[in-house]
Request: fold
Amino acid sequence: MEKSTYQKRIVLSIALVLLFFLSPFTGAGLYSWPVAAASPVDGPASGNILLELARTNDRGKLSYDLIIEGDFTYNSFLLSEPERLVIDLTGLELDPALSTAGLADDPVKGVRVSRFDHNTVRVVFDLEYLVGYKLERRTEAPGGLRLDFNVVLKDIGFQLASAVPEIYVDTSGPVQYKVDFLLNPHRLLIDLWDVTLTGPALTVPGNDTWVQSIRVSQFDPQTIRLVLDIKEPRNCVVGIDETNPARLLIKTMTELQEATWLPDGNGGRLILKGSGRLPGEPRYDQNTGKLYIRIPQTKLGKELQATADADAVFKLRELESSTVEVELTVPRGHDYSVSWNQDRREITVEVKNAPLAGKVIILDPGHGGADAGAISPNGLREKELNLAVAVRLKQKLEDLGAEVLLTREDDRYLWLYDRVAIANRTGGAVLLSIHANNHDNRKIHGLEIWHHPDRNESAILAQALAEAVLARTKQHFRGIMSSKDFVIPREAQMPAVIFEMGFVSNRDEEKLLITEEFQDKITDGICQGLIAYFHPSDGS
Reply:
């Protein structure tokens, strides 16, 4: 009996030894069972993995994307000494290829990623200083987290060069803000969202004009509050600097202090002066002939608040939205321009006589290049005279508001059909071909204007030009003539004439044609003739 018991113990011992050595290969045994039986919650599920860390910039804020595939939970917290942000990701594996190189950017000194325990991956952002942040799940695929660090307050103070009280608030990126007024005592409250004050609360002394002091504090983890202790309630403007989106400007509302109309023979100038910058966009109403300029964030000075006379050239009014509107009458046949001085505290509106505004006029200096045209006994070549007069005429027409195109601007040859093609492509209102005449009989002299006999508008144009030019030059007039043979009046798709200034073959007329005084009379006459043609009811 004892021998049998002993034998049984030997067999059992051998069985246990075999079981011990065989269990790693079979996947079952005393040591593997507890791990295999562990709950999936205790370790990352297959396919849940932290793939990538990427630095981005969201509207001026430093941001990071944590790209994650699969399900996970997370927890985050700030630690000091040393300063850092910790994000624990539960239920994830680490991608072996994940890199943290190149992720540093103020205030982030560097990023570290490691396995914190068998179920947690820890991401640590080492910081120059503690700063607020937002952490949200990514909505786009692949999933993960989006980390946005707050912008930080960099500086606050007064613009010393400003003519009105103006405060600047510089941050490391663009901010959103909210403004409130409180009375008795008078305070202006400005909350800046998603902004961190990296140091203790501070107070900025006032400038002894409007602001007594500026108190700055971290109102809550995501909000900085500015409290401006002001001496009196006063309209003010809070807005983003036009040239720097990371700068907030706080200033009292600009006051329009002066509005002066200075008339002259051709129109006049309206000069507007403000206590600060005068932004605005001009708008012209063709139906009323009025120019309107709305100047936002501005109010009328006391001296300008009186209602202007009904017949005044300009009017000023305050609109409900803290805006001044300027209304200026632009007379018929006049044009306007609006300009600002360098610091934009002064607006000048110039109104000038421009009866040809909107008109496209084609001037064709006859001949050119190898084609010299008529040559006077003294060697005056028609092509040079034609170009000189056309250039002079172009300047005067542009001063009257017209858009002017020359078929040639230098000494080059152009085929007649090329000249007409240039005019037709531009869709000009009229075409004037400038020439000087020639005749074997050197006693013949005087002005001629040619048109096509079947073009009534061309005949009307010729008549208007003849009357205006002759009134100024007192020339002998040979008449308005017509012919179907001339290419330019025949092929042009707009009223067209050939303007023969005089005969270079006549010695007396040649002497006149080459003088600037006589050329001015001819070109002034042509300008007035065109005004009369385009505005027949004016009686010009």
